[in-house]
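INFO batch 0412 | record 1 of 1 | parsing
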Amino acid sequence: MFYFLIIIYLVLGILGYQIGWAVYQYDELRLLQFPIALLALITIFFRKIVLSWETQLTFYLIGLVIFFNCLRYGIFQLQELCSVLILLFILVALITDQYYKKYFYHASAVLIFSATLPCLFIFPSLFYFITEQKWLDWQFNSGSIRIYDSVIVPLFFLLILLKNKNYPYSKFFFPAVVFLFTLVWLFDGARSALLSVILGLIVLFLFSKAERGLVFSTFLYMFLAFALYKGIFVLFTEFNTVSLVNTVELTDKKIGESQNPIVARNLEILRTGSSLRAEMWLFMFEQWKQDPFWGVGGGYLAKIGYPYGHHIHNFYLRMIFEWGVIGLIFLLWAFYKVVLLFKDKSVNIILKTGLIALLVDAIFSGNMVYPLSQISCILFISFIFSQRYLNKEKIIFNAELWTSKLFFIVWGSIFIYITLIYFYQDLTCWGCISSGGRMAPNFWEFGAAGHLTYSNQAN
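INFO prediction complete | emitting tokens
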């Protein structure tokens, strides 16, 4: 069952397990998406799936625009296009999986438990932070710390849903998990994740009287985490005469290991500034103005090796600035689908507010860039839309069925062609590594990398 494959992918990714396909876990998770997408495509083809006419029209129009502009595409744009197709196939396969309703809550509990385990290792880091003024990297997964922060945003709302459904023992683990997730966001300085969660909870409080008690208790546990967070900072500044921001360091190693180097780190959640996001957005805007119809091209910051990062940290601006009219068409289609979802009263309001949180997080983060957070978000989104799909009886006409199958044949063929022609060398390179420029993730761990290389050939 395809659904369980996705759960396994997420659990192993969260816990940091690698099979050795690539040196970096981030690159391996990206590589694993290719066979998963192929399996999703096969699964879709053997199901009676009927796509709406507006969905088919939208993507055929996008395909037509791509066809007339494809000669301009380099490897970075093909990376972006391939990533979108992967997520599209996985999304459709999950939405139409009939096992969702039967197993989803149990699978959600497994995911939440898996994501909670790494959080426990924050306490040794806190002890080391207080005694040595250094912060150990406690996360199990590789790459930017923001990856894990975005992964657990949808899991946070799944946790609230389990509590709402009185899932067994939820009254015991709910307070602990809320506390730990919040503590993680606070010490990671994850302003985007915290903002998105808080806004989602506020919307839930305002529009659902029945859930106000649940929202209040959630905020209470989050406040307790904040109290511990500020208390540790007070203790730190009380016994250290130097500034916290200037002295806190992150040792780039897992707990118990001895690696280097040491890099500067800011743990203050209440810090000001955009963390260079505003500068990236302004830079991209200036570049986009030169060709607003076509955009600057997918993966533009990775292509030029932009010093502040290899993606813009804003999903919506990225679609418009990089893809021009294609991105605009896609966003209009996505907005239309979200509006229909929010009008549907059969969909649980907790899921709707969770979607709001994901949409807000996408304004400031790379939750739809990093492979693990991509799948975490897609799993959550697919469950929301599966409520509409499974709750509605449809009369399927042969013409509708075959036009939908033709749709997947066309886009599936494009995906397979791109994979074989442009990414075959990556898929067949066992134990390879991404390299080049700084370690700022985009499609690969080193975002400026077009392809993986053997470790002995890396820069």
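INFO post-check: The first strand starts at residue 134 and ends at 136.
INFO record closed
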